[in-house]
Predict the structure.
Amino acid sequence: MKISSTVLRGAVGKGAYLRYLAGCLPATNDGRKLALDQRLINALLPDDENSKVAACVERSYHIWKETADKKSAQLIFCDLSTPKGDGQFNVYSDMKEKLMEKGVPEKEIAFIHTANTDTKKADLFSKVRSGQVRFLLGSTPKMGAGTNVQDRLIALHHMDVPWKPSDIEQQEGRILRQGNNNPKVNIFRYVTEGTFDSYSWQLIENKQKFISQIMTSKSPVRSCEDVDEAALSYAEVKALATGNPYIKEKMDLDIQVSKLKLLKASHTSNIYRLEDNIAKVYPKQIATLTEQINAFRADIAHYQTHKITDPENFVMEVAGRQYTDKKEAGTALLDTCKATSMVDTAMNVGQYQGFNMRIRFDTFEKAFKISLKNESVVTARLGTDEIGNITRMNNLLESFPERLTEVEQKLENIQNQLASAKEEVVKPFSKEDELAEKLERLNELNALLNMDEKGPAEEIQEEKTSIHDKLTAMKDKVKQNQSTDHQHLRAEACM
């Protein structure tokens, strides 16, 4: 897959954009239309040879020509203009006319809007898949999910910027999917320099970052504020239109500050986790491990006292009866298992070398298990061999020193983690100074761009107040001059 962006410069660029904004910009939507084609604002404006439409037509035509033998198809997404059929200018008809002028047959160009029934849609999609229609133009809502035309798709063109990352995913999902016969495809994004395009792509990026943060739980903050499509402030529009370098610096700082805030949030979350571990988790683990250590030490001493050192003195109690022969004892143990109902509940069956023997049926492993208990409990799986089961029990009793060492090592690790946590929990955020510096600079930029000060209504009110003050001052001055003139006249009359 190849993704490329085309930055356009020309009459629709900064000059025309600034001149239009100087007159009026009633809504963000008009700014987006102007970035696509200035004739969407006023059909009398000239057809700019450097516009998105012209660039897309030129590129898509060359792809059409190069893939003629394969009859490859292309999708062109445009949400801001629709074919109306009333003679008014629209991007769809203009692109179709330009492609036909270059030699593309009319029958190979189709608008998704013409397929207004399921039957017509199915017929249109079939023509695209077979190569009869090689240009399909449509909007995200009409050409998103359910548009299965991927078989011959070789290129996809983004003419404008959707408002949601999911819209882009829906668009590109038409070509990036199983069933496409082309191993490599092209995705083109067209951007007009000095217009709302740059800001719109910035919004998409920010929204996707917020979505990713929430979905991956990388931040303890599980909510975010959405950015409305009409939320552009007057200062941002002004800065974007005039090419103010501060807006670029502000956008970069916004990203850097967001990353630093995420790092700080992660640091704060880690501090909370460490505090919880220090106060609750580690002490509980240490208490449990200490209890296990004491139990193993007691069992080691108990085993040394009751250990059978002479094989001739073997003794085992099973179901209230003592056995001095290993095979008989093993057989009695298996008979006890067979007489036991298969329930996952431990049952006392006797004693061996000072330890209580308990058996239970493990419903998960579908097998009987035997446990030896004094202060601690050790467990082994019973087999069908009588002598083998007694050997397993001997191995359990001999494993106490090894188990004690493992638990002691765990305790040491937990104690080290507790010590490290106590050191880490008092450490400040390492990039606090950098964050404060960038926030300070961001506040300065916001002040310069008038983003955090008065809104348009307040500015108008201030302007009115300022004019009122000037008029009052002028009126007072006139009165003062009149009074002075009147005094002069009285003085002359007295003379």
About this structure: Residues 461 and 467 are 10 Å apart (CA to CA).
